[in-house]
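Last lecture ended with a question: if I hand you only a sequence, what can you say about the shape of the protein? Today we answer it with a concrete record. The protein is Pyrrolo-quinoline quinone repeat domain-containing protein. Below, first the input exactly as provided, then the predicted structure, then a couple of comments.
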Amino acid sequence: MLGLLGSGVVAGLAGCSGTTNEDPANGSEENGTGDDPPGESEASGGGDEGTATVWRSFHGDAANSGYQPAATGPTGSVTERWQFDAEAALAGSPVVVDGTVYAVSLDGTAYAVDAETGDERWQYPTGRTSTATPAVADGTVYVAGGRVLCAIDASTGERAWETHPGGGVLSSPTVADGRVYVGDRSGAVHAIDAAASEVDWSFEVEASVDAAPAVIDGTVYIVDGDRSAYALDAETGDPNRTFIPEDRQRLRSGASVGVPFDADAAVGTASEFAASGQARQESGSDWSATVADGRVYLASADEIYAINAVSGGREWHAQLGDAQPRFRSLSFGGLQRSVSIPLSAAVADGVVYAVGGAAVCAFDAATGDRLWRTPVDGAGIRIEPGAAGSAQFVADGRSMALSSAGNLQVGVAGSSSPVVADGTVFVGTGETVVALDAETGDARWRRGVGERVTTTPAVVQTPAGDGAVYVGTGDGTLYALVDDGE
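The predicted structure:
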C-alpha cells in the first residue's frame, strides 16, 4: 500500500469557500522526477500544442486541461450554425479534429460529423452502452463502452480493432505516446498499445476508475472510486506517489446510490432510500485529475485540491459546495449501468476554474485564493417526479430518469465541466450553454438549446476560421454554436 501523502479536508463550508494551504513538501520527495515538474512542458498549456482546430479527448487534451489557447471561441451573442440528431442521448463529450466532430451516443454508436456543415460522414455502432468521451489520435478514434475498447478508422468509420482490457471499461480513454490509457469497473487502469491493441501494463487500485486518466511528461494520473489519486510511470505502470484525503471513508460512504426500478416508489431522498432498503451504496468518485503548471488539480462537485505533482503533497484545498451523495448508477431488471460523468477543473493562464455549489468558481492556481464566483442555473441537488410512469433524480446537476418501459435516460441539469478559450469560460447549465468572462466571471452570453446539456462543451476554430462551441443534449442532439455576427 502506498504511503499517505497529504491529509485533511475543510468540512462544512458551502459555496466556493476560502482555502487551506499546505507546504508543498508535505508528501514524500523520494519519488521526485527531475527539475521540470509535470505540466510545465510545451504541451501542457492546454488544447493540442497550439492547434486551434483540435479538441482531441476528454477536456481537450491528454492532461485534461480544459483549455484551448489557440481558438477564438464566440464571445458575443451566438447562433446555431447546425444541429445533428443522433439516435440516443449524448453523454460523452464531443471531440474535434481537423474539421470533423466525433461523438458517441449512449447506445454506443460513434458518429463523425462535418464540423462546418453538420453533415454525417459515417457512423459505427459498437453495440455497447457508452457514457465515455472518445479520443482521437493518429487517424484513429478510440471508443470505450461495456467491457470493450474499440479503435475506429477516423476517415472511413471502419473498425481497426477492439480489445477487452479488464472488468468493464468505464473511463474515457486518453491517448499519449502510442498508448491508450483507460480505467475500468473492477478498479484498474490499463495501458494499451495503440497499434497492436495489446495491454502493456495494468495497475490495480481499491475502487473503480471512472474518470479519464491524465497523462503528461511520462506520468499517468488517475483517481479511483475512493477518491484516492495515483501517479504512475507511463512506461511501466509503477506507482510513484499517491494522495489520499484523511476523511475518504466519509466521502466513500456517501459517494453514490444505486436505485432499483420502481415507477411508484423510486422517488425520495437518498436517506429515505437507504432506510427503506431500496438503495444500494456503491463505492464511486466524481473526481478527475487535471495537470498543469506542476500541479495536479482534483475537482468534484463539492471541493477541489491542488497537489504538488512532484512530491504528492497538498498545496491548497477549497470547498465548492455542500458535500452531497451523488446518484451515479441505477439498477433495474437486474441490469446496472453507470451514468457517471466526473467533473474536471479547467486551468488557463494561472487560474483554475471549477463548477460546484450551484456556481462557477475561479481560483488563483498557485495560492487557491478565490477570484470570483458566478451562480449558474440548474446545479444543486433535488429529487423530483418525472413524466407519468417514470421517476427522475437530479443530483449535483445530473439528471437520471427511468421510464415505465425500463429504459435508462440520462441528462445533465446544470454542471458540465468548465472549459476555457479566448478569455471565456464555457459551461453547460440545465438547458443552457453559458459563456463567462474568464477574468471577472461576468456573463457574456447564454444560449438555450431546449434540452438538458449532457456533455462538456468542446471549443475549437472551425474550417471557416471562426470559433465554435460544440455541445450535446439528452435527446441526442449535437449543436454547433458560433458568433451571430451582430
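Comments.
1. The mean pLDDT is 76.
2. The chain has one domain: 19-483.
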